[in-house]
Design a protein that fits this description.
The chain is mainly α. It has one domain: Na+/H+ antiporter like fold (Up-down Bundle), CATH 1.20.1530.20. The protein is built from 14 helices and no strands. It has helices at about 1-20, 20-45, 50-80, 85-95, 100-110, 115-140, 145-155, 155-170, 175-185, 190-200, 210-235, 240-250, 255-265, 270-290. The longest helix has 29 residues, at about 50-80.
């Protein structure tokens, strides 16, 4: 976990120091969102050791839990905090979407063991499918479901998931040269995304009210999803490894993908960048607490 923290904050610091032009940030966001992350998703499906049947069950569990957390935040907690319209939408997404990739895998290795990594990879794949079908449809300005469905069908995550599933189902073999290229492109996703996160914090000044708002979202992100996921995980599966992975993954910091989506929509990303920073700083403490009581 310490190594993951060093990598995350190291690249964010480099991005903060190197940021100069806004147009460079937008180009970097589009590169990650529409090319590198879809490649990473496809490669994850191609190389995962989890069977299609197990993957399908984990996807189902993840979807049910995430949607319940989203509905609770959107219609109860968010309203209680007085969030409205765009603020409500983005704060709820920030409190729902988790960094289950690089950071999540490091935590699972530390807390559960190497044998749990395939389950963690499956949850990461389920998260990408959730982003493809649900996340993209929420970030635009469309009010009708037809427009939201059209937006979801236009995003690259969905087609990366479909291509990866098809590849696994057909049991094709990846040519060595192509696999090396795709692995190299996928490995660039995390550092570039972290550089962008640090860069987005460079020109922003956070007042006391803005910091308090980001702190409230961060607390919700680190506490509420775990409280919802815990009893559901106990009910949905008898596998202790899967239970532990599902609970811990919901305690991860806010996903970097959300920052990319906000940047693509040309929104002010200062609040999201601060939430990502705060949840990443404080999640080791909340996760250690969760680890002490895992079933």
């Amino acid at each position: 976990m310490l190594q993951a923290m060093v990598v995350v904050f190291g690249f964010m610091a480099l991005g903060y120091a190197a940021q100069r032009r806004e147009e460079q940030n937008r180009s970097l966001a589009k590169l990650c969102l529409y090319y590198l992350i879809p490649i990473l998703i496809f490669q994850s499906f191609v190389h995962t050791e989890v069977s299609i049947q197990s993957l399908a069950m984990i996807v189902l569990h993840f979807f049910v839990m995430t949607l319940l957390v989203y509905v609770l935040l959107m219609h109860v907690v968010g309203r209680w905090f007085g969030w409205q319209k765009e603020t409500l939408k983005w704060n709820v997404l920030a409190a729902t979407l988790a960094n289950v990739g690089y950071f999540g895998l490091a935590v699972i290795r530390y807390a559960v063991g190497e044998h749990a990594v395939p389950y963690a990879v499956a949850v990461s794949l389920a998260f990408n499918l959730y982003m493809a079908l649900f996340g993209f449809s929420q970030v635009g300005g469309e009010r009708q479901w037809r427009g939201r469905i059209r937006r979801a069908l236009q995003n690259p995550y969905l087609y990366a998931v479909i291509a990866g599933l098809l590849w696994r189902w057909m049991d094709w073999t990846m040519p060595g040269a192509l696999d090396a290229f795709l692995n190299l492109a996928a490995s660039a996703t995390l550092p570039l995304t972290l550089l962008l996160t640090g860069a987005e914090m460079r020109n922003n000044r956070y007042g006391r009210e803005g910091l308090w708002d980001a702190a409230k979202v961060s607390i919700l992100k680190l506490v509420l999803p775990v409280l919802v996921a815990w009893p559901l995980a106990l009910w949905m599966t008898d596998d202790p490894v899967e239970r532990s992975v599902m609970i811990l993954m919901f305690g991860m910091p806010t996903s970097l993908n959300l920052l990319l989506l906000a940047k693509d929509q040309e929104r002010d990303t200062s609040a999201l960048a601060m939430v990502i920073l705060l949840t990443t700083v404080f999640c080791p403490f909340t996760l250690l607490l969760v680890m002490d009581y895992l079933p």
